């Protein structure tokens, strides 16, 4: 085969690999904890995140609320999330309490005030946004919220730079969250305490809205453990309205390995022989600090680094089969770990030399696939 023809084939294969990788990653989304949800239009998803109010345009007109989902389906989805044992228990307790509260109200019995606002604390990547999203859908299913959407925002989406603008900006975000859950990430950033800081104005506006719309708005604030405690106790209004706390533990290495394998299943990837043990070691090496690694976010980063190496490996082949596109090999993982080519070749059992590569090619042609390099390059 002449060089120009081979180059043309390689370019075509690179284009196919890039397209399939982008498609698989887009299918996976950012939900690391459970099975993929049915694909629906964004505006039709009762638990989808809405605009955070960062722009100056008017909020889009209100859409008709999607019908409530079955609480049994939502509980099954919750059970399917990896880890989060303590959080799942608390959420189920809350579901039971809200169910009984609603039954008493429907039967004309007296009820105590039920505060559904919550404080989520934990390190990054531990599932706080995912649980906030499903809580919005659960409250909608139970008839507590009229729409069940999640509006995710941080300080930048609430605080403006001039006097009087913060209340307007925060009110706009609150309006978009009515009927659902307002999720404020790193909420302690609102408590800047600087002379010209307008975070307190945002806090005051939110507290007023929580009182005015107590029957159709739930606010969840989230962030690191100690900082969230200090934030809640810094303001009597916050202390009186937030009395429900959920702590999100870091994932264990085994749980993060399961998250990686779940991402593979969702993206139609398969682990070759020896890959799982190598992944366990890779995650343990990288997870020396759960804050900087980011738990499930760190797993996602490792996953994408490994896919880059898979794409580079496949781009060097003359032909690429469907099985090749699905297979992740020990070499892909080793290169993501920063091991040299020589070490990767030693792990695969062949020297990284022209002769070694020729031996591997001959072995591939002369012997049936056995799950090693011959199968990977088939």
From TrEMBL:
Record-linked SUPFAM superfamilies: P-loop containing nucleoside triphosphate hydrolases
GO molecular function: ATP binding; ATP hydrolysis activity
Domain of life: Bacteria
Keywords for the protein's UniProt record, in alphabetical order: ATP-binding, Nucleotide-binding
Skewed-composition ranges (Basic and acidic residues): 354-365
Stretches assigned to the AAA+ ATPase domain: 114-252
Keyword Nucleotide-binding recorded: yes
Region (Disordered): 27-67, 339-378
Keyword Secreted included in the entry's annotation: no
PANTHER family: AAA-TYPE ATPASE FAMILY PROTEIN / ANKYRIN REPEAT FAMILY PROTEIN (PTHR43392), AAA-TYPE ATPASE FAMILY PROTEIN _ ANKYRIN REPEAT FAMILY PROTEIN (PTHR43392:SF2)
Similarity comment: family membership: Belongs to the CbxX/CfxQ family.
Protein's name in the database: AAA family ATPase
Originating species: Oscillibacter hominis
